[in-house]
Amino acid sequence: MSKVLSLLAGLALALLVLAGCGDDDPSSATGAGTVSTAAGAAFPVTITHRYGSTEIERAPERIVTVGLVEQDALLALGITPVATTEWFGDRPGAIFPWAKDEQGDAPDPTVLKSPTGAVQFEKIAALRPDLILALYADLKKTDYDKLSRIAPVVVAPKQYVPYGIPWQDVTTIVGRAVGRPAQAAELVDGVEQQLADAKAAHPEFAGRRGLVATYFEGKPYVYGPQDPRGRLLTTLGFSLPDGLQEYVGTEFGRDLSEERADLLDVDAITWLVASDKDRQVIRDRPTYRRLPVRQKGREVFLDETTTLGQAASFISVLSIPYLLDELVPQLSTAVERE
């Protein structure tokens, strides 16, 4: 797995990715990805993005997700893709528990496995897709051009850093691409209302500083304002540390130097960890032990091998409702510790 994918996942789920229980046989997804002809009236549709624009002439029936979270938006819209790209978690079809109900009886998608992060061109072509989604991704222009010879490709708008597109945009763009924009808008409105309700129910978050971080290659790694995890905190009422945007620059996050350990000193920090050992290593770091956030226990540790830990990285229209139920109470407890 590439360093970027490891950091996106929060850390060391590479072994789970390599273990792989998804089926790479394109025939295993036969029947998945069917889109109702009721969407036909929405076509053709043109979607503008980082590399120009893509015209989709008719309702797609065989959708491949090269991006890492788009399957959730599709499933929420009642569509199962023929293939997904595995990020972490080793789940059949790369479909997580919070999305299984939406899948219903549809067959599991073929899982495209790429430990290095390389696009699986031959496997994708063999699936005969009529739409390729690469929104939550870092698809290079050369790869976009190659994929476009296979099927129409939709990537993120140019204003977002790679892996920085908000879940709302993922949902609405996917909705347009499959001819279901009104349904997508309703889904976004519903989840945004849940977020607003959670914020209103927890006024203790207002004015408090929050942060999401992980531990990678022997040092902390912090997720910035353009990362969906950081955006989730600000949506709930938290502010991010002063100087975080300047520190991470144009990336979704950055390794944290010892000299900037002050960025960890917030009112509630969420750590994504791979094991209890990593948790202890973090808590024992001299620069971290001196910080009030550590001394007062204003920490939430999420195990990346659990559904909650995985939902905390996925940040989608389907994972957020689950995350609100499970994570928000822990954040509330953390900020109240004195």
TrEMBL record:
It is found in: Cell envelope. The keyword Transport applies. GO terms for cellular component: outer membrane-bounded periplasmic space. The keyword Transcription does not apply. Gene3D superfamilies: Nitrogenase molybdenum iron protein domain. InterPro entries: ABC_transptr_periplasmic_BD, Bact_iron-sidero_bind. Residues 1-19 form the signal peptide. GO terms for biological process: iron coordination entity transport. Coiled coil: none annotated. Residues 62-335 form the Fe/B12 periplasmic-binding domain. It comes from the Bacteria. This is Iron ABC transporter substrate-binding protein. It comes from Paraconexibacter algicola.
